[in-house]
């Protein structure tokens, strides 16, 4: 079977399974199925660490001057939470179909322990928190088996985790495996910046200065700026602003908060400043944006 035919088959399997995703998520919590027949314009998004495999359709991610296309040839690997912009290309005839693999750090640690000091395992040093990498035949084969077992709850519960581990292994031993290795190591700047990002995630409502964040990374302010941008492709203050705006957006969409309450909840002292920055970042007012997102199926 050709690669194109395999991807078509995987897309059809996902379309069949997508309505059972709530039940499947309890059996395989680290897997999220993706399926859409509607294109979406370029818009800001906030992705958590994970691997996104697409077998049909494609997305283009934009982060400052960098662009990432992920499709049936390249998957997307994120090892830090990143706000960026994304455009979705999908139609009824060529839907967006794929899966997202959450990165389980404990499983990753166990995998690295099993690999041990094997000389055949060599990964380049991690430079960025977002990368694309070739979608190999080995990953496609494992994805097909994973989707097969997901049609049978007992098989999904018993065999699914092993196949997820296999896919994680192929990503780990692939060209961007160094980014995964850096997640569980204490080496170099990558893990230090990852620690700062976790600090932002836990304390984004507080008055976080660059000096405080640099101290958390045990770096000078200039070194911190340089290393932070190398990992996230943005500055510390821009990242913090983006993170707060995305959090406020979620509060308005999912919790029904108004703009001023959401602004205060994420650390803004001025509701008018929040509204200005929100419109500058998302291209629309908080109220208009929340109403639009609530109208999107599945959100």
Number of domains: 3
- The chain-level structural class is alpha+beta
Radius of gyration: 20 Å
CATH topology of the largest domain: Jelly Rolls
Order of helices and strands: HHEEEEEEEEHEHHHHHHHHHH
H/I helix tally: 13
Largest sheet: 5 strands, antiparallel
Helix content: 40-55%
Report strand order across the widest sheet: 1-8-3-6-9
Distance N to C terminus: 36 Å
Describe what you observe in this structure.
- This protein is an alpha+beta fold and 299 residues long.
- It folds into three domains: 3-183, Jelly Rolls (Sandwich); 186-202 and 211-232; 235-299, Homeodomain-like (Arc Repressor Mutant, subunit A), CATH 1.10.10.
- Helices cover 52% and strands 19% of the residues.
- The protein is built from 13 helices and nine strands.
- The chain has a five-stranded antiparallel β-sheet. Strands 2-7-4-5 form a four-stranded antiparallel β-sheet.
- A hairpin with a 2-residue loop joins strand 4 (58-63) and strand 5.
- The two termini are 36 Å apart.
Labels describing this entry:
single chain, 299 residues, alpha+beta, Jelly Rolls, Arc Repressor Mutant, subunit A, 4-stranded antiparallel sheet, 52% helix
List the helices and strands and how they pair.
Elements: H1 3-17, H2 21-27, E1 31-36, E2 40-47, E3 50-56, E4 58-63, E5 66-70, E6 74-78, E7 82-89, E8 96-102, H3 105-115, E9 130-134, H4 137-149, H5 153-172, H6 177-183, H7 188-203, H8 210-216, H9 221-232, H10 236-254, H11 259-265, H12 271-282, H13 286-294
Antiparallel strand pairs: 1-8, 2-7, 3-6, 3-8, 4-5, 4-7, 6-9
Helix pairs in contact: 1-4, 4-5, 8-9, 10-11, 10-13, 11-12
